Amino acid sequence: MAFDSAVQGELLALLGEDRAFFDPATRQLYASDETPRACPPEAVVFPTRHEQVAALVALANRRGFPLVARGAGSGNVGGALPAPGSVVVSFECMNRVLEFDPANRLMVVQPGVVTDDIDALAASAGLMYAPDPGSGAYCRIGGNLAMNAAGPRCVKYGATRDHVLGLRAVAGDGRELKVGGRTSKYATAYDLTRLLVGSEGTLALITEATLKLVPAPETVASLRVCYADNAAACAAVERVMAQPVVPCALEFMDSRSLSAIREYGGAEGLPEGTRAVLMVEADGDLDDVPHQIALLEKALAGPGLLEIQSGFAAADIKNLWTARKSLSHAVKKIAPLKINEDVVVPVARLDRLVAAIDGLGHRFALPIVSFGHAGNGNLHVNLMVHPDDPDEMARARACRDALVEAVLGLGGSLSGEHGIGSEKRRYVARELDAATLAMMRDVKRLFDPNGILNPGKKLPD
Ligand SMILES: Cc1cc2nc3c(=O)[nH]c(=O)nc-3n(C[C@H](O)[C@H](O)[C@H](O)COP(=O)(O)OP(=O)(O)OC[C@H]3O[C@@H](n4cnc5c(N)ncnc54)[C@H](O)[C@@H]3O)c2cc1C
Hints:
globular, 34% helix, Alpha-Beta Plaits, 18 strands, 4 domains, alpha+beta, five-stranded antiparallel β-sheet, binds flavin-adenine dinucleotide, 461 residues, seven-stranded antiparallel β-sheet, Uridine Diphospho-n-acetylenolpyruvylglucosamine Reductase, domain 2
């Protein structure tokens, strides 16, 4: 690695003194994401233009240092964790909306725009940017694109990948790419747009995105549905997804999740004996939503149902979602370290996944908190542990292994939305066959022959 004062000089010449930092405090600040690991980079830089990003990639290739792209650092798989000797490329200052074109239902943005701000601007013209990660108030669209982020609404509208028309990017070898376009139909090129989405900063640095917007629904109605146990809630999820009305949210919380959110006001007034809750929403026209809700209520009813609560006031709906979105942090009351898995199975096998998780909790004597996007079969499975207890940590490792086996056995996948990063790489070869992995490595080499982009992520060693 050739990171020395000459490289510092070149970075300063390229970005200016107020956009390139080498001091220990800044390096420490950018040393980790939401994973409990840290590695201070050699430098943190804040480009403001595509051309600077292209020049950075050229410099990194010439001098041989890794670049690690970063949005808000809210990822929980070590995607933005700096590699040793790397330069963190923070996109926080590339945060402009370049174009808002309601007539063509699109918005062109730089990667540092905060996700919820995109949706808020779209709403000003009666439109919506549909992907709604729980971290939307602070995560950046570049991070969402790199991870193919999703959220509750994705059960109806699809994930980030389904809402991108085109991208501008700089590949690891320095080539400047414009992929996709501005139209809702496009059949010209290989679909490099979909390839770059979800590539976790390992193939190219995204400098601009043309996002697809959809009409905002006129109204949204919510249901809080309580069940006597997980099996009853999962059976209801299966019934809902087997009928024609697609809810715009279908979220699951197990009993440990309900205990964790109590102080956020999301578990008030639950009937006695509630062990699992579904949060269900329908959106659309004012005159259609009541009809959707009636059909959803019919599908939600079944053995183990304790209560369906509807007719929430707007403030109550907001509280409910605040509580649900607080879960990621609220669970840390149970134990200081959360090992967060983000597994996904075909939705009609969710019951088997939840039963398997219950069994693993008993077998490895660990508190496991499960919640998430049930309508997609995507659960956040949190193993709560004390990192200073070696025996508990060993059991957690064995439990993770067994969870992966169970998920793959059900035809599922390691990650529904959080990605692989550094934290889940060791499991990837269990899911993907050798030919697919080899093809992925070829793609990596094609885009990034010198391996300068986010080394040690996504692909197993
Ligand atoms: C409380 C909480 C709730 C969450 N809820 C959800 C949820 O509901 N759904 C969900 O999907 N995720 C969720 N996440 C995870 C996380 O917020 C998402 O992965 C998000 O997309 C990361 O965005 P970021 O800006 O923080 O990216 P970072 O964490 O900074 O980076 C993520 C990855 O993107 C790469 N990257 C960033 N910018 C670029 C770029 N311009 N070009 C190329 N690569 C780039 C990085 O190298 C890294 O690999 C949650 C996290 C927290 C802490």
